[in-house]
Amino acid sequence: MIDFFDFSNLHFYFAIVLAVINAILLCFEGYKFMQIIQLSGYHLRGYFDWLKDTRAKYIVRLLMLAILSTACFLVTNVIFDAYSEYLSYLGFLLYLLFSLIFITRIYRAPKKTPLKMTHRMNRSMALLFVVNLIISFGFILLSSLFIDIYRFGAVALTPLTLPLTVPFVHWVMKPIEKAINRGYVKRAKAKLATMPKLIKIGITGSYGKTSTKNFLNTILSERYSVCSTPMNFNTPMGITKTVLQYLTPLHQVLIAEMGARQVGDIKELCDIVEPQYGIVTAVGEQHMATFQSIENVRRTKSELPAYLKGVTNGLCIFNTDSPDTKIIFDNAECQKVGVSATDSSSFVYATDIETTTAGTSFVLHIRDMPDIPVKTKLFGLHNINNLLLCVALAVKMGLTRDELIRGLARIMPVEHRLQLIQAENDVTIIDDAYNASIEGSQRALQVLAMWKDRRKIVITPGLVELGTMERLANYNLGQEIAGVADIVIIMNKVHYLSVKQGLLDKGFDESKIYNTDNMDNTVKLLGELMQPHDVILWENDLPDNYT
Questions:
Q1: How many CB atoms lie within 10 A of CB 95?
Q2: Helix (H, G, I), strand (E, B) or coil at 386
Q3: CA dihedral in degrees (192, 194, 198, 199; nearest 10)?
Q4: Domains along the chain with CATH numbers
Q5: CB neighbourhood size of 330 (10 A)
Q6: What is the DSSP letter of 389?
Q7: Helices marked H in 293-424
Q8: Residue 262 CB neighbours (<10 A)
Q9: What predicted TM-score, i.e. pTM, was given to this entire model?
């Protein structure tokens, strides 16, 4: 038995070293749990939903690690204790080996969005290390005092604490992070206050925010120096980072994509950006797991026009072809413009819309301006809607017809959003893998159907973040795919049965339905199935909190 009050005992210092090593191991073993916390926007509800949806399979893996390592500790302690008590440390070496294998498997697993070591995550990891250190030393102390034969083997049980220590660390850090974030927001608002002539635009909606932002950036750049939030930086910290790191005094326009998962999110972003203009794209049943109802979605998206009501000369552009956006438009009390792709009474609209496998062409009509023939590489009427929203706002901001023509000529598809890629052997890939919705999947399948004389393959994990609607939505997705595709690969098992049942109920050939468990195996299978001239639709990519 170790006398932990005898500092001359060498085992005491071994215990400290082992506790430190184990605390480091636990930080690496907790990678997946920290990743899910981050993907959930640091909301614990998303973390616990992940544990439930995945049936706590990572906890089961930790249990296997603990059982195997504990057995090794017990065996080495019993066998070698008679020869030398120091030989029992071999058990820790085996535990270290098993832990490294476990960690390697976690880090090598395919990830859509790896853990980002931001300043916030570094602070959380530092606290996690301290908590792990205390737990490790405590386990060693207790086992050495009360179960001598087990000795340092109690560290093998510490991985089982991770599912609780990770959310505990988040809970402890939350008020600290809120205070830090308030400081960043204050700095961003102070910087914006030094640029009174800066034109600020907010873009929100359930779908099409990023595409609309990129289109608007391209068009407005014909007249203005534009800064826009990169990628999907559509949260308070994403917008704050854009202002602090990317916005310069030379910029004349700031475009802020505004995302939301719950009521009040858009209002918070408006308070930071203080936009003079807004765009509301299509609104629908997205992120229903957090919004709970379409009424809450509309209420949240209405926060942008509600803010603009109090802004002098504030103006909001609405996609009135979206039924839910039309409801918001009808109730909005700010200055507003409704845009419809096909309504000739709209401020801007399109005629002679023709979509081929090369893209979409149409004639653009703008009130009090000569018509503009437009040719784009975009697919889908929804993209025409997004483009018209940008044109309407650009005209209101003073762009000329010539500037619009030049800007429209430079419009390109947004990466992973109905992006057409030509591969070898005349294989066509429609990359719509960024994020899928019910409406978005329907549009993607409509695009795929245009290749009438080609074999068509659909790859999808199904639709996610729809709460109680998910099972029915994926069943319906399977039925819709059945009318277009020749082969279907369903990635992961989360919605496999729902999508498959929808396919089968529409008479789809079961032998043409495949299931894979990760991206690597999907690519390998596709390589075996693919033939020259095939058309492949990648529809959605499963977020890591569904794996």
A1: 28
A2: helix
A3: 40
A4: 10-176 (no CATH), 195-409 (3.40.1190.10), 419-546 (3.90.190.20)
A5: 11
A6: H
A7: 294-301, 303-309, 323-331, 381-396, 401-409
A8: 14
A9: 0.80
The closest alpha carbon to 522, from 482, 492, 547, belongs to: 492
First to last CA, the chain: 44
d(CA 463, CA 426): 29
Separation of CA 359 from chain center:
27
For residue 139, what are its two tokens? 């386990």
Q: Which residue reads 């005491």 in tokens?
A: 12
286-299 burial, b for 16+ CB within 10 Å, e for fewer? bbbbbbeebebbbb
Token couple for 129:
């290390």
Q: 457: alpha, beta or left, given left = phi > 0 and alpha = psi -120 to 50?
A: beta
- Concatenate the DSSP letters of all residues of 247-268 into one string: --TT--EEEEE---SSTTHHHH
Tokens linked to 514: 């495949």
Tokens for 194?
């030094």
Query: What is the pLDDT confidence band of residue 196, given thresholds at 50, 70 and 90?
Result: very high
- State how far the Cα of 545 lies from the Cα of 39, in Å rounded to an integer: 7
Nearest to 236 by CA among 1, 513, 462, 42: 42
Residues in Cβ contact with 179 at an 8 Å cutoff, skipping those fewer than 6 apart: none
* Residue listed under structure tokens 């065996």: 75
Q: Determine the Cα–Cα distance for residues 100 and 202; give it in Å rounded to an integer.
A: 46
CA 101 to each of CA 95, 104, 353: distance values in angstroms, whole numbers, following the listed order: 10, 5, 57
Q: Do 202 and 256 form a contact (C-beta atoms < 8 A)?
A: yes
Q: In what order do the strands lie in the sheet with 369-376?
A: 348-356, 359-366, 369-376
Give 177-182's long-range contacts (Cβ < 8 A, gap of 24+). 177/42, 177/120, 177/123, 180/120, 181/236, 181/237, 181/240
CA distances from 310 to 268, 350, 535 (A): 15, 32, 50
Identity of the residue numbered 528:
E
| φ/ψ bin of 160: left (φ > 0), alpha (ψ from -120 to 50), beta (otherwise) | alpha
Helix axes 162-193, 10-29, angle to 10 degrees: 60
Contact 305, 278 (CB under 8 A): yes
Residue 543 region, left (φ>0) first, then alpha (ψ -120 to 50), else beta?
Answer: beta
**What does pLDDT average to over the chain?**
88
Single-letter residue type at 98? F
Helices 265-273 and 162-193, axial angle in degrees (round to 10): 40
For residue range 291-333, list pLDDT tens digits in order: 778 899 999 999 999 999 999 999 999 999 999 999 999 999 9
* pLDDT value, residue 518: 78
Per DSSP, helices labelled H in 487-538 are 496-505, 519-529
Question: What is the rounded radius of gyration, in angstroms, for the C-alpha atoms of the chain?
Answer: 28
Starting from the edge strand earliest in sequence, which strands make up the sheet with 253-257, in order?
226-228, 253-257, 199-204, 277-280, 315-319, 335-339
**pLDDT at res. 150:** 62
